[in-house]
Please model this.
Amino acid sequence: MAGRWQRVLLKLSGEMLAGGGGHGIDESVLASLADEILEAHRLGVQVGVVTGGGNIFRGLAASTRGMDRVGADTMGMLATVINGLALQHALEKRGMQTRVMSAIEMNRVCEPYIRRRAVRHLEKGRVVVLVAGTGNPYFTTDTAAVLRAVEIGADVVLKATKVDGIYSDDPVTHPEATFYPQITYQEILDRGLAVMDLTAITLLKENRLPLVVFRVERQGSLLKLLQGEALGTSVTE
Model:
């Protein structure tokens, strides 16, 4: 059975992988995410994943404490590799062929990111985990996710979060915040909503690439989304 999209780019933040602990990798969260991706894979959807690294090291936060920004961002990119390898292990335990591709070459650990090779892996039914951000400092993993989605020809970017979608404010600290089931890129920019950074949103807008922000903690949510259920917030032109 085919899903609503043939090829998706799933963005997983480091905070998501940390679970309730706030840092490190929560094995139960990792297992749950791997199960979600397995269901998507069984649906016949080609899945690329970009991992964040904030559960291990945040380059921007370290730079505000006096660390050199370029060095701090490089450490943050390496943190995403750790998360990507952990996800690969969880996926392969479930029988999925997985390739980790890094923007920073480390051939003993994973493959270098080469766009045509990544597309070929997806066409062969492998889950491709894209790590080390863009390979450059000053760019977030959200921007990396959009860039990779454009490069590999993904139909949509799916940003997994701990909340139901996009709100006018943080719904955890502001329970009265307004939920947006649909919104445009320009409205996000005009209202200064902290969905993704400015570069990522602009890149989505310029390439007319849809974004869906949804809560992945609810079991089966990714599968429901792929099957056409209206979950989270849909962002389009």
Residues 69-93 form the longest helix (25 residues). The chain has a mean pLDDT of 93. The radius of gyration is 17 Å. DSSP finds nine helices and eleven strands in the chain.
